[in-house]
C-alpha cells in the first residue's frame, strides 16, 4: 500500500482557496503523509474584500479545530444571520433570506404549508417572523447558540462576514505551523510528462523548479494548470447569469451599529453587496457590462455608500460558469480556477470548502484511478449546478420591468431542473432536494416566497390538523422568538465582548 | 381554495401491500375528510414474498407498526413473528464461502471516517478479523442469541436492530384488522371491469366482478399484485423487464416443521439460484428461487423482476408488486411499499389535477426501486461460482450506475449513496466485501488517526461485542420469555 501514496502536493496560488486547501490538507492527512508546498507571489495583487459565508463554514472551522472567538477577532469578522434582499421582487420591496428553519413541522406536514393556509385565511404574519435567525437579524442581536438543545437559543443558525485577506493570513499561520512550506515566486512555466501529460513540475522566475505528484490549482480565474496547461474547457452560464463585472470598494460605517446580515440591493443592471465588518463595510456593484458602463456602475456604487470610501473603487471581470472538468490527470482546480458564480448567496467560500472535502473523500494515490476524478467531477458539477439554479431563481422571479436588464432576466429561459422546482412549489408549496444539494427546503422557501412565488394552494394534509390550534401555536412561537431574540446582546456589544475576551470555545 | 379535493380513495386488492396502504392512509388522513375503501377478493392473491408462508421484513417496518399501534406481542401471538438479526449468506460468493449481513450497526466511525475504512487499514497492517466481527448483530446471531436493542446510546446493545419473520397470511389479516379499526371499509369481490372517463381516460369506477354497483372514487390505488389490474391492464402502462439483470424467474416454497429456531435468515446459493430458510415460531418457511433457463421444477411459480414504466398515471398509483417486483433475495419488498405510501402522502393530490405530483412521484419511486434493484444485482454479479448460471451472472453487463459504483468501491472503498437510496452504506459495504469485491485503496483519512489508537479501539470494540453477545439470552430462551 505505502508505495503508491502521494508523497508531495503542490498548491499553486495562495488566497482564500490556496490557504484553505493547505490548512485542511495539513490537518486531515496523517502526519508525514505528504509534503505540502504552496506557491504564491506577492506581486499578484490581492485586496481584502468583505466576504460573506454560509453556516457550513462552522464545520470547516471545526475540522481545523479553530477557536471561533479567535477566528472572528483575527479576521475582523462579524456575524451573519441572513441576507436582506432589497428591490429584487419589485422596487421598494425587501425580504430576508435567513439561516435556519421556519417554524416546526406538525404531523409530518411542513410548517410553510400551515403558514400558507393561514395566509390564505388572512391570519398569517410575514413568514420571517417564524424563523428565529430572521427575528434576531431584524433586531440586530446575537450570541453564540446555547448548547442546551431544549432552549430556543440553540436554534440560532449563523455564518460569518470577514476580511478575506485577513482570513487567508490566519489560515497561512495555521498551515505553516503544521508543516506547509510556502514558496514565494511567480510561475513562468509548467512541465508535463511527455506521454501522459501529467504535470511534473512548475518552474518559477529565476529557474527554480518545484516538483510534485499532485497539484491543486488555486490560481484563480485563469486556471493556470487546469485550463492553460491541461486545456479543460469552460461551460459558460452567462445566458442565465449575465453579470460579468463588479466594481468594489470599502467604506466607513455611518454609525456604531453593525447589522448581523448581508444586504443585496438590486440596481438597474445588477446588484450591490454590503458586508459589514468590525472596522468598515465591504461593498461592490455586480453588473452586466452589456447593460451599463463601468463609469455608470462606479457612479451608482459611490452614490450608495454608508460612509466615505476608504479605497478608490476597482473593477473585477469574470464570467459565470464552471470548468468542464475540475479534476484532470493529477491536477485539481479549487476556487475560481474551477468556476465562478456571483456572490449573491455567498457561495464562493463554500464551493472551495466543498471542493476540499470532496478531495479528502476521494484522495488519490499515484495510480490516479480514473473513477476518483470522474466521481469528483460528477459531485462538483452537481454542487455548481444546484447552486446555479438557486441563484438564477432570484433573477427569474422578479416583477421588475424598469430596465432592459430586468426585462431580460425575467423573460429568459431557465434550466429545466429549476423550472420543475418552481412549478411544484407554485402549485402547492412542494419541495424536493437533490442528492448533495447545498440549499435546503428553508432556503428555497425564503427566496420563493420572498420573491412572490407563493403557492396557489397548500398540501391537502394540512387540513388534517385543527387550524385554530396551529394558529395558536404559531402565535406563541412568534412571541417566543421575539422575546428570546430580545434577550440577546446587540451585535456590536457581542463583537466588542469577544474582541476583548480570552480565546475560548463558544 | 375552491379546488376540489380527493375524498374517495379506492384501494384495489387485499394483498399485504393493499392492507398496509389502507391502514397507513386511514391512520394518517382525517376520517372526516377522506373515505377509504378496499376491494378485497375472497381468496387471497398469491404473492411471491409469502409463498410457503413466511414473510421476511426489514427493521423499518417497525416504524409502520408504531404508527398503526400494532404491538409486537400481537405479531408474536397472531402472526408467529420470529426475530431476525440479519441474513447469513452461505455458498456466496463461492461454494464453502459465507458472510453475515446484520441489520444493526457495524463498528463505529472515528473522526468522520466510515468504520469499514478503518478496518481496511488495520486489516492490511495486522490481524483485524472479519468486518462482521465488529457487528454485535452478527456475533450474537452466530451464537444463536438474541436481544432487542437498548435505547441507551452508550450501551453496545444499542447497535442491534432486527426485522421479523412473519406468517404471511396471518400478517395480512392482522393488517386488515388494523385498517378496519382505523376506519377502512372493506368490500368483498374480485376486481372486475375498470370504467374510464371518455374525455381524458381517468378512472371513474371499478366494478366488483360478479355484480354490485361499480365503485366510484376520486383516486385509485392498484394493489392487485404483479397483474396490475388497474395500472397495467386498464391504463396500459407497460412493464419494464429486468430479467436480463435478475435472471431468477421461478420460485418453489415449502413449509417445514420441527426446525430449531435461529434468529436470522439463511440464504444459501445453489446451482441456478438460491434458497431461503426462515424460521418462524412454529417450523420454518423455505423458498427456493432459480432461473428457468438453467433448471426446471414442477409446481414452481413463475415471476419476473421488473417495474412499471410509471407508478402513478392519471388518478391511479400502484403500490407493491403492481408497481415493481424484485427478486426476493433482499427482504425489502415491504420497505418499497412503505416508501410508496409515504411518498404518496407527501404528494397527496387534489382532484382533477395531479400531473405535477405524478411526475415527482414517478421520479422518486423510479430511483428508489432502481437503487434497491442494484444491490440485489450486485449479489449475482460479484460471484465466484462455476455453475453455468453463475458464470453467466458474472459476465452480464450491469446497469451503468451499478458498474460505476463497483468501480468506485474497487478504487477507493468508497460507497456511493445516491438520491433515494434505501439500503445503508453499511449494507453496501457488507455486500461488496462479502461478495469478494476487493478495494485497491481505502479512504486516506483513515490513515490520519494514530495507529495504536485505532488498534486499541478496534480491539476494545471486539471485546465489548463478544462480552455483550455472550450475555444475551439464547434465542429459544428469549422466545419463551415472549408472550405467545
Described by strand count, sense and barrel closure, the largest sheet of chain B is: 7 strands, mixed
Average pLDDT over all residues of chain B: 93
Q: In CATH terms, what is the fold-level topology of chain B?
A: FAD/NAD(P)-binding domain
- List the strand order in the largest sheet of chain A: 6-5-15-16-17-14-18
Question: Hey, roughly how much beta strand do the residues of chain B contain?
Answer: 15-25%
Number of domains of chain A: 2
Oligomer kind: heterodimer
N→C terminal distance of chain A: 41 Å
> Which regions of chain A have little confidence, pLDDT < 50, spanning 5+ residues?
none
Do you know the CATH architecture of chain B? 3-Layer(bba) Sandwich
Determine and state the CATH class of chain B.
Answer: Alpha Beta
- Summed over residues and divided by their number, the pLDDT of chain A gives a mean of 94
Span between N and C termini of chain B? 52 Å
Tell me about this structure.
The complex is a heterodimer of chains A (506) and B (484). Chain A has 506 residues and is of the alpha+beta class. Chain A has 2 domains: 2-77 and 162-236 and 320-386, FAD/NAD(P)-binding domain; 102-160 and 401-486, no CATH class. Chain A is built from 15 helices and 22 strands. Chain A has helices spanning 15-28, 57-64, 68-74, 111-120, 132-139, 164-177, 224-229, 294-302, 348-361, 370-396, 404-411, 416-428, 441-450, 467-486, 491-500, and strands at 8-12, 35-40, 50-52, 78-80, 82-86, 94-98, 159-163, 181-184, 187-192, 199-204, 209-211, 214-217, 234-236, 245-251, 262-267, 270-276, 281-287, 314-317, 321-323, 327-328, 331-333, 339-340. In chain A, the strands form 5 sheets. Chain A has a 7-stranded mixed sheet with strand order 6-5-15-16-17-14-18. A 6-stranded mixed sheet of chain A has the order 8-2-1-12-21-20. In chain A, strands 3-7-4 form a 3-stranded antiparallel sheet. In chain A, α1 (15-28) runs parallel beside α9 (348-361), α5 (132-139) crosses α14 (467-486) and α9 (348-361) packs antiparallel against α10 (370-396). The longest helix of chain A has 27 residues, at 370-396. Chain B has 484 residues and is of the alpha+beta class. Chain B has one domain: FAD/NAD(P)-binding domain (3-Layer(bba) Sandwich). Helix content of chain B is 35%, strand content 20%. Chain B has 14 helices and 22 strands. In chain B, strands 6-5-15-16-17-14-18 form a 7-stranded mixed sheet. A 6-stranded mixed sheet of chain B has the order 8-2-1-12-21-20. In chain B, strands 3-7-4 form a 3-stranded antiparallel sheet. The model of chain B has no long low-confidence stretch (mean pLDDT 93). Classes of the chains: A alpha+beta (506), B alpha+beta (484).
Amino acid at each position: 500500500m505505502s508505495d503508491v501514496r502521494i508523497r508531495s502536493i503542490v498548491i499553486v496560488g495562495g488566497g482564500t482557496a490556496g490557504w484553505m486547501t493547505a490548512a485542511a490538507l495539513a490537518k486531515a492527512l496523517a502526519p508525514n503523509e505528504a509534503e505540502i508546498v504552496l506557491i504564491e507571489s506577492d506581486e499578484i495583487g490581492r485586496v481584502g474584500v468583505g466576504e460573506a459565508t454560509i453556516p457550513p463554514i462552522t464545520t470547516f472551522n471545526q475540522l481545523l479545530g479553530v477557536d471561533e472567538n479567535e477566528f472572528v477577532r483575527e479576521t475582523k469578522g462579524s456575524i451573519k444571520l441572513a441576507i436582506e434582499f432589497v428591490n429584487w421582487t419589485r422596487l421598494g420591496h425587501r425580504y430576508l433570506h435567513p439561516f435556519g428553519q421556519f417554524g416546526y413541522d406538525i404531523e409530518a406536514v411542513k410548517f410553510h404549508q400551515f403558514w400558507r393556509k393561514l395566509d390564505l385565511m388572512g391570519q398569517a404574519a410575514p413568514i420571517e417572523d417564524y424563523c428565529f435567525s430572521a427575528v434576531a437579524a431584524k433586531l440586530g442581536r446575537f450570541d453564540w447558540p446555547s448548547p442546551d438543545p431544549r432552549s430556543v437559543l440553540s436554534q440560532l443558525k449563523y455564518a460569518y462576514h470577514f476580511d478575506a485577506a485577513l482570513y487567508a493570513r490566519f489560515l497561512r499561520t495555521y498551515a505553516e505551523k503544521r508543516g506547509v512550506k510556502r514558496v514565494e515566486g511567480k510561475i513562468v512555466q509548467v512541465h508535463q510528462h511527455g506521454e501522459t501529460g501529467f504535470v511534473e513540475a512548475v518552474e518559477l522566475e529565476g529557474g527554480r523548479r518545484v516538483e510534485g505528484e499532485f497539484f491543486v490549482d488555486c490560481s484563480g480565474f485563469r486556471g493556470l494548470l487546469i485550463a492553460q496547461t491541461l486545456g479543460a474547457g469552460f461551460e459558460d452560464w452567462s445566458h442565465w447569469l449575465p453579470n460579468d463585472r463588479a466594481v468594489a470598494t470599502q467604506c466607513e460605517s455611518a454609525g456604531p451599529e453593525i447589522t448581523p446580515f448581508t444586504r443585496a440591493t438590486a440596481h438597474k443592471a445588477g446588484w450591490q453587496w454590503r458586508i459589514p465588518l468590525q472596522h468598515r463595510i465591504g461593498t461592490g456593484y455586480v453588473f452586466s457590462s452589456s447593460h451599463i458602463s463601468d463609469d455608470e456602475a462606479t457612479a451608482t456604487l459611490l452614490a450608495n455608500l454608508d460612509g466615505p470610501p476608504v479605497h478608490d473603487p476597482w473593477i473585477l471581470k469574470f464570467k459565470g460558469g464552471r470548468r468542464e472538468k475540475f479534476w484532470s490527470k493529477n491536477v485539481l482546480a479549487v476556487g475560481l480556477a474551477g468556476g465562478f458564480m456571483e456572490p449573491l448567496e455567498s457561495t464562493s467560500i463554500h464551493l472551495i470548502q466543498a471542493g476540499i472535502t470532496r478531495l479528502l473523500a476521494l484522495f488519490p494515490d499515484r495510480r490516479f484511478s480514473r473513477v476518483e476524478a470522474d466521481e469528483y467531477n460528477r459531485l462538483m458539477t452537481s454542487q455548481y449546478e444546484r447552486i446555479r439554479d438557486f441563484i438564477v431563481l432570484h433573477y427569474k422571479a422578479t416583477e421588475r420591468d424598469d430596465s432592459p436588464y430586468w426585462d431580460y432576466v425575467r423573460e429568459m429561459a431557465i434550466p429545466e431542473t429549476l423550472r420543475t422546482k418552481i412549478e411544484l412549489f407554485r402549485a402547492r408549496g412542494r419541495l424536493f432536494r437533490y442528492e448533495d444539494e447545498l440549499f435546503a427546503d428553508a432556503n428555497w422557501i425564503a427566496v420563493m416566497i420572498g420573491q412572490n412565488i407563493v403557492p396557489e394552494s397548500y398540501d391537502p394534509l394540512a387540513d388534517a390538523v385543527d387550524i385554530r390550534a396551529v394558529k395558536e401555536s404559531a402565535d406563541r412561537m412568534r412571541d417566543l422568538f421575539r422575546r428570546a431574540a430580545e434577550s440577546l446582546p446587540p451585535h456590536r456589544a457581542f463583537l466588542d465582548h469577544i474582541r476583548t475576551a480570552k480565546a475560548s470555545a463558544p | 381554495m375552491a379546488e376540489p379535493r380527493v375524498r374517495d380513495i379506492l384501494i384495489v386488492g387485499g394483498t399485504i401491500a393493499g392492507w398496509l396502504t389502507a391502514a397507513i392512509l386511514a391512520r394518517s388522513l382525517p376520517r372526516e375528510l377522506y373515505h377509504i375503501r378496499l376491494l378485497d377478493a375472497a381468496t387471497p392473491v398469491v404473492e411471491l414474498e409469502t409463498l410457503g408462508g413466511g414473510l421476511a421484513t426489514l427493521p423499518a417496518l417497525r416504524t409502520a407498526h408504531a404508527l398503526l399501534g400494532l404491538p409486537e406481542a400481537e405479531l408474536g401471538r397472531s402472526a408467529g413473528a420470529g426475530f431476525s438479526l440479519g441474513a447469513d449468506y452461505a455458498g456466496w460468493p463461492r461454494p464453502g464461502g459465507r458472510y453475515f449481513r446484520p441489520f444493526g450497526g457495524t463498528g463505529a466511525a472515528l473522526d468522520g471516517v466510515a468504520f469499514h475504512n478503518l478496518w481496511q487499514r488495520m486489516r492490511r497492517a495486522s490481524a483485524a478479523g472479519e468486518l462482521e466481527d465488529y457487528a454485535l448483530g452478527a456475533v450474537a446471531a452466530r451464537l444463536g442469541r438474541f436481544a432487542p436493542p437498548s435505547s441507551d446510546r452508550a450501551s453496545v446493545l444499542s447497535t442491534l436492530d432486527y426485522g421479523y419473520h412473519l406468517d404471511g397470511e396471518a400478517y395480512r389479516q392482522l393488517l386488515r384488522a388494523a385498517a378496519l379499526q382505523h376506519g377502512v371499509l372493506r368490500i368483498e369481490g374480485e376486481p372486475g371491469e375498470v370504467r374510464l372517463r371518455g374525455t381524458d381516460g381517468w378512472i371513474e369506477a371499478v366494478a366488483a366482478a360478479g355484480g354490485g354497483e361499480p365503485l366510484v372514487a376520486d383516486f385509485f390505488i392498484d394493489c392487485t399484485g404483479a397483474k396490475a389490474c388497474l395500472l397495467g391492464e386498464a391504463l396500459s402502462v407497460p412493464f419494464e423487464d429486468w430479467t436480463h439483470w435478475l435472471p431468477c424467474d421461478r420460485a418453489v416454497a415449502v413449509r417445514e416443521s420441527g426446525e430449531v429456531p435461529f434468529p436470522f435468515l439463511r440464504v444459501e446459493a445453489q446451482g441456478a439460484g438460491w434458497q431461503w430458510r426462515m424460521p418462524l415460531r412454529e417450523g420454518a418457511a423455505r423458498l427456493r428461487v432459480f432461473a428457468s433457463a438453467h433448471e426446471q421444477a414442477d409446481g414452481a411459480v413463475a415471476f419476473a423482476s421488473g417495474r412499471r414504466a410509471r407508478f402513478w398515471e392519471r388518478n391511479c398509483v400502484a403500490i407493491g408488486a403492481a408497481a415493481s417486483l424484485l427478486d426476493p433475495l433482499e427482504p425489502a419488498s415491504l420497505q418499497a411499499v412503505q416508501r410508496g405510501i409515504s411518498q404518496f402522502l407527501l404528494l397527496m393530490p387534489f382532484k382533477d389535477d395531479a400531473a405535477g405530483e405524478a411526475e415527482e412521484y414517478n421520479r422518486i419511486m423510479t430511483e428508489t426501486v432502481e437503487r434497491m434493484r442494484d444491490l440485489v444485482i450486485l449479489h449475482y454479479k460479484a460471484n465466484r461460482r462455476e455453475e453455468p448460471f453463475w458464470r453467466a451472472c458474472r459476465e452480464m453487463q450491469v446497469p451503468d450506475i451499478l458498474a460505476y459504483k463497483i468501480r468506485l468501491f474497487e478504487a477507493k472503498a468508497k460507497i456511493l449513496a445516491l438520491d433515494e437510496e434505501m439500503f445503508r452504506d453499511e449494507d453496501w459495504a457488507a455486500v461488496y466485501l462479502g461478495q469478494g469485491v476487493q478495494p485497491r485503496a481505502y479512504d486516506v483519512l483513515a490513515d490520519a488517526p494514530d495507529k495504536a489508537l485505532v488498534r486499541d479501539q478496534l480491539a476494545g470494540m471486539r471485546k465489548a461485542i463478544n462480552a455483550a453477545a455472550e450475555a444475551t439470552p439464547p434465542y429459544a430462551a428469549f422466545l419463551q420469555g415472549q408472550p405467545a
